[in-house]
Design goal:
With about 450 residues, this protein is α/β, with parallel strands linked by helices. The protein has 12 helices and 19 strands. It folds into 2 domains: about 160 residues, no CATH class; about 260 residues, Aldolase class I (TIM Barrel, Alpha-Beta Barrel), CATH 3.20.20.70. α10 runs parallel beside α12. The structure holds iron/sulfur cluster.
Amino acid sequence: MAVFLAVLASGGWRWLSLSKPTPTASKRYENCSRKESLVITIPAPRTISADRRRTLYFNAQRHFLTVSDDLHTTFSFDREGRLLGAFLDGINYRRGLCGDILMKRVGVAEGKLRRMLTPDERRQLLSLVGAHLVTFREYARHAAGVEVCAWLDRALTWDVARLEAEREAFYSIYKPISILPPDQYLSLVLQAAEGCSWNRCTFCSLYRDRRFRIKSPAEFRHHVQQVKAFIGAGISLRRSIFLGDANALIIPQPRLRELLAIVHDEFPLGVPGGMKGVYAFLDIFGAEQKTRDEYREMRDAQVKRVYLGLESGDEQVFRLLNKPGSPAACIEAVRTIKAAGINVGIILLAGAGGTRLASAHVARSLDALAAMNLSDGDLVYVSPLIVSPDSPYMQSLREAQSEPLDAAAARKQLERLKSGARSVCGSGVKAALYHLEEFIY
Ligand code: SF4
């Protein structure tokens, strides 16, 4: 890791290398503040006003570069030089591989404001980043190391036109990545299957745009190779494989075996410096269930965690959501998966069932978690229910003579589910928020 720091004092910049916290480095720091010969005086760049003392930080980590101007404005880039994120005027921006940019502002009346930038806003932001980069590169040549300079040069090749063109390339390789569990936002998604084999839950429209299909080994290998070429050196940021889309693990075992073998051919898995393992959703609790031996085979193929959308442990709420299977079948599936040595992530839906079923939803969901015997490495996610007024879920809710929770009651239920999960599952199991609007890939 190398950290470079530039201080703009009145009329000039002092560059301090903090890459090695050794006595030598400290000495350089002291000398730098005293010796005129180490002060670099160059005209202030267009994008940075020199009317006050300010500091630039260049932080080259193994997988990303961060450049910060006075810690108020920060940009990060992957090893290819693609923009990963920015912090500007108190607003966070995250750019996905798909080219969209998600903005998140805290401290507004609603608590948090999250939304995707419009195309015009996106291009404006990218162009602003480009202007800052020109400035950063200009100063970096005086003090930052060769690595940082080369990294900034790569970032400069990603102008607005190139970044925008990349969107098309992304969608020629991927169907939209609709959602991932929060701990997998930085995984490398490989779409072994597309869509959801059920696709009929009343509250879920994530995969309505596509037909479910399983890729052939040849097609999957081609997809994997395209993904690798697309992401390039940026792959270093991705530490795990997520097998898409919604129900990849229901792929019949012989085909799944072949597809996992391709993943192993293409990536080092479960070895130092390699990918940590394979992760996937499973949302069918019934006839398609696999046996403990089949899960053991997956464990041996480095499948580390399976995410199951229980949503509710209450039968009536479960039916209202039109989930496949039943809470009991989900508990059974979790026990089988865990007995094979694979961790699970259980997803609950805060607000499901509305006012009339709220107490039963919370109580039975916590009962279901308790019955799963979760342990270290397992996760519980609580996701706020987000549906449009015309969704089939709203119709089902009316038929059940229930109503949506208001915002305060929904927040309270979310907190009750999270704290209840912590208390029934024990300290080794993390319970966290899973907000659909936080996701970008
Ligand atoms: S099974 Fe999962 S992905 Fe499929 S429709 Fe239901 S919630 Fe959505």
